[in-house]
């Protein structure tokens, strides 16, 4: 299995926010040497609690943050992201059509008909009727918005999708639908997905492999059944107990 | 009986067309009982809870039916009587521990507030009681927490502070509106444990509102399932899990991600 | 321009009111019933008549003609000021708010310094440096109003730059300029529109104040502020001289406010 993503010994630190110009700014280490790989067509779960650095890792992979040291090697171009809150991740003043066509406008020389055709196709794949093309995000429900986000992330035919808590803001029945959609897309399009979540049950439902992150380090990783059955690290055990799994 | 709600209807008038958000809501709670209220966003569960706590003002919403708490009619009693109950006999905690604490006041002051209003006590007595409840909710170093500001605490600690503030007058009814939704899973489990202990030690009845059926199963004895403003099913938790009668309840249970090892 | 929203009375009424003033003002730039500066001592303080519907002022000049030309001056100064202030303020506010960092720090401290002077005083200083006259007044007021727009726009950009839709626009390959002006700007239009309206009203009032102090529009040229200032000596024996330009000002400001607050403009 070829690797779609390789992260080698990535370190990231931030300077503290300054309140006045005389404050001393301390460096806070957020990622302390992350190593990971994602294979083609694999769905990998990344679990950990808030502040463990999982969202920072996602931004590093996407190139939104430059790591202090280490490297990120992509086996594909244009990895895309799905965000947690479908209410803030869609521009409220644009139509669904504008949002979907935006990547094509910026990164390809596709003409208007071609863009519209692709937008319609992707929207349908995400399970929404093409009539929603002319809608604004405020006219859509949370689940519908998340489908638009998924359609948007597919516009550039990415090989790798990073989903940062994509279902934790949704109701449980909608959550199940979106998980099903992600699973189907993985199968039909051969996507690889890095699925970030704090919910171990959701991760179990979707992922093949899981990585447990704490304090900027990956403390445990492995096949999902193996990790859930025989957690090696004390922290993994705590998480599983708290979720009522063991 | 501690709480008796019958035929509660809540209607909003902020648009030109009145909009009913809760229909014919019935609920009976005994002292020391934990009842779960489950439903998805927009099901009317939070509105029902706000009405029971007496927090839906007469300007915002029109309410019909009756809410009787220990013989007092919450919907029609004078403002003064209601204020005497709130924070003393009835307390409420909310989902977002970030916004439900005042950012510019020290924790100690906020925890003491309900006691300052309802009880005659010297500042020393108040502080002693505040430290006591802060210890009781398992906050490490309560003396330090007492003197800190909300932003110096983590989300889990803030939710414990909220519980401490709600418990300072040992209320008979605690309404918890999604108190663990914004928290990490390990913290979530601890808060549920804490609520269980409070219920056992003080015989405080808890109305626990959540969208998460698995949490309700861990904590509650009885559950009401709401959808679109109606209670579609209610009964003992285990019974509803084993043999749900309504299609919607079954759908909710099936939507919980299963882990079979 | 998009369609007028259904039953948007604010927009329709506002537009009608604004047009009552704007159309005569536009005509006034090319034609007025009488010469606006011709004095006629026999018509001094004359009441309204068929030939002079609003009467004449203390120099016997036709008030209708002076309002027509004066409101075009006032409109020009109001719109021009807001335009300079809003465009420059949006540019600076967007850049500093979006990028942050050292440039932001320096700009904002500079802005704070500018803010510590009343904008009327700033305008006074600019006029003193550049000399008085219509264009100079417009520039002076425009410059003096920039800091308030910078502050509003910057705050909105600081808030917006951390929202997920901005990240998602970056992932869609949009350049910084595109993110700033195509993605974010439409979302802050509502806030900006409100400050533009307040700014317009403030500019009109500032023009009146400066003209009153004698450093705005120079006599004998007319502006609504100038006319109001001149009329106050006769407020009790000939209130008509004050009422006509005053009403014009009220109708204009009210009409433009209504349009600006209407659903058609603010709902994106």
What does it look like?
The complex is a heterotrimer of chains A (246), B (261) and C (268). Chain A is an alpha/beta fold and 246 residues long. Helix content of chain A is 36%, strand content 26%. Chain A has a 6-stranded mixed β-sheet with strand order 5-6-7-3-8-9, with helices on both faces. Chain A has a 3-stranded antiparallel β-sheet with strand order 2-1-4, with helices on one face. In chain A, strand 8 and strand 9 form a beta hairpin. The model of chain A has no long low-confidence stretch (mean pLDDT 90). Chain B has a 6-stranded mixed β-sheet with strand order 6-7-8-3-9-10, with helices on both faces. Chain B has a 4-stranded antiparallel β-sheet with strand order 2-1-4-5, with helices on one face. The longest helix of chain B is centred in the C-terminal third of the chain and has 18 residues. The radius of gyration of chain B is 19 Å and the shape is globular. With 268 residues, chain C is mostly helical. Chain C has a single domain, classed as Orthogonal Bundle (MetI-like fold), CATH 1.10.3720. Chain C has 10 helices and no strands. The model of chain C has no long low-confidence stretch (mean pLDDT 83). Chains in contact: A-B, A-C. The interface between A and B is medium-sized, with 28 and 24 residues.
Count of folded domains of chain A: 2
Based on CA atoms alone, the radius of gyration of chain A comes out at 19 Å
Q: Largest interface here, residues on each chain? A: A-B, 28 and 24 residues
Give me the CATH superfamily of the largest domain in chain A. P-loop containing nucleotide triphosphate hydrolases
Biggest pleated-sheet summary of chain B: 6 strands, mixed
Distance between the termini of chain B: 43 Å
Give the strand order, joined by hyphens, for the main sheet of chain A. 5-6-7-3-8-9
Q: How much helical structure, as a percent, in the residues of chain A?
A: 25-40%
- The gyration radius over C-alpha positions of chain B equals 19 Å
Query: Can you say what the CATH homologous superfamily of chain B is?
Result: P-loop containing nucleotide triphosphate hydrolases
Structural class estimated from helices and strands of chain A: alpha/beta
Mean pLDDT of chain A: 90
How many structural domains does the protein architecture of chain B include?
Answer: 1
Count the DSSP helices of chain A: 8
